[in-house]
Amino acid sequence: MSQLNELERASRLTALRSLLDLMRPAVQADGGDLVLIRADVDTGVVEVQLQGACSSCAISSDTLQGGVTRILMDRLTWVTEVIGGLDDTLDPEESASLGAGGYVPRYREI
């Protein structure tokens, strides 16, 4: 693997942030958000997190795998791996109030 110079690193990071900014409105429309946690532009490993209503969405794993991962790897040829996670710090009711996405309430025994 060849070493990148600072300009190449900055260019890759700028392209990554720009692409994530293009994807964020679709996630935000459902009350969630897409956040860059870390990016190693030398190895191509990118870590993102879905937040807000996405943490309780039934299709959040599909969004990460079929959407975010596919788009990043298709459009940024240097991306080798996308690590995705969910921020589940919101309770289900608060999360559901953020958007109209595929919210599925958690089962509670009575």
Task: Write up what this structure looks like.
This protein has 110 residues and is an alpha+beta fold. The chain has one domain (6-94): Fe-S cluster assembly (FSCA) (GMP Synthetase, Chain A, domain 3). Helix content is 41%, strand content 21%. The protein is built from 3 helices and 3 strands, in the order αββαβα. It has helices spanning 6-28, 60-75, 92-97, and strands spanning 32-40, 45-52, 81-86. Strands 1-2-3 form a 3-stranded mixed beta sheet. The longest helix is centred in the first third of the chain and has 23 residues, at 6-28. Residues 100-110 have low confidence and may be disordered.
Mean pLDDT, to the nearest integer, reads 78
- Which H/E pattern describes the elements? HEEHEH
Share of helix among residues?
A: 40-55%
Query: Order of strands across the widest beta sheet?
Result: 1-2-3
Distance between the termini: 57 Å
Percent strand: 15-25%
The CATH architecture is 2-Layer Sandwich
The rough form would be described as elongated
Supply the CATH superfamily name. Answer: Fe-S cluster assembly (FSCA)
Assign the structural class, choosing from mainly alpha, mainly beta, alpha/beta, alpha+beta, or little secondary structure. alpha+beta
Give unreliable regions as ranges: 100-110
CATH topology: GMP Synthetase, Chain A, domain 3
The structural domain count equals 1
| Number of DSSP-assigned strands | 3
- The whole-angstrom Rg is 16 Å
Q: Tell me, what is the CATH class?
A: Alpha Beta
